[in-house]
Amino acid sequence: MIMGIDPGRDKCGVAVLTAAGEIKYQRVVVTDELGDVIKRLAAEYDIELVLLGDGTTH
Length: 58
Prior knowledge:
- The chain has a single domain (about 1-50), classed as MutS, DNA mismatch repair protein, domain I (3-Layer(aba) Sandwich), CATH 3.40.1170.
- About 20% of the residues lie in helices and about 40% in strands.
- It contains 1 helix and 4 strands; from the N terminus they run βββαβ.
């Protein structure tokens, strides 16, 4: 499974996909909750790769 995270100041996009591209999870979450969301998804799915976007605020 692949986890994609697109971080932002106030909110973040988070997705979990299979290697074939099937979306298993896709949400926008409040940035303050991102750590808890990542922990929960890592426990639920066998994450093998994490892709991190560069965000929109630099």
